[in-house]
Amino acid sequence: MLRFMPVGDSMTIGSAGEHTWRYRMWQHLCGTYDGPCTLVGPRETLYDKQAEAPTSYAYAEPGFPRAHLAGWGEGWLHMAPLIGEAVRSCRADVLLVSLGLIDLGFYTNAEQTAANVRTFVANAREADAGIHMVLLPVIRNIRAVSDEPFAEQVTRFNELLAKTAADLDEPRSPILMASPPASYDIDTDTYDGTHPNASGEHRIAGAFAEAMRQGWGLGKEYKEYRAGTD
Fold first, then answer.
1. In this structure, are strands 94-98 and 2-8 parallel, antiparallel, or unpaired?
2. SGNH hydrolase-type esterase domain spans which residues (predicted)?
3. Which domains, ranges and CATH numbers included, belong to the chain?
4. Residue 229 clears pLDDT 60, i.e. is over it
5. Is pLDDT of 223 > 80?
6. Total-model pTM
7. Do residues 2 and 33 lie in contact, with contact meaning Cβ atoms separated by under 8 Å?
8. What is the CA radius of gyration of the chain?
9. How high is the mean pLDDT of the chain?
10. Which residues neighbour 167 within 8 Å (Cβ) at sequence distance 6 or greater?
């Protein structure tokens, strides 16, 4: 059984009442991958905005493996120290990583964030020398529209992320760079300029799915994200 671990920030953990792109990804894998698979991770909850804490189990679709390693307000800086134990204890085969927005917005510049990516990869490989990884660049968000210096940092980091993935890629533990979600529009694919709605969830899941299909021949074409349907 292939074990996928979603790793991310608020766009990955999701909040109470949401499906999350994790659900869309699991649904796609079950429907197109010729073999058993599941989602794994040390956490299961959604973020409760009223409690301001990750305490909710109120998924819009509860009937799927809810495990993940994601946190509201967490980035590469926060996940690098955690990933080794998470990979080891959950026996993950593939990491689906969407991080960077929080780092660049509050903690580190592009170069420092890229250095934390390298630490993350090293720690994951120390736990499992054969771990596979798919990395999603920081995708379009409302702050990048209104804050030019931040937008420049996002562009710079995405360039460094692609270089880092290429530098660290190796046959035993391959790293794929996913392309940004096709036609991602913050007005129609998010509910607040950053966090994905149903359409955005499909597009993020589709970006990961297409990277694995094209890079590793895993699964079939992801079509739902183009329609943005539930």
1. parallel
2. 7-201
3. 2-227 (3.40.50.1110)
4. no
5. no
6. 0.96
7. yes
8. 16
9. 95
10. none
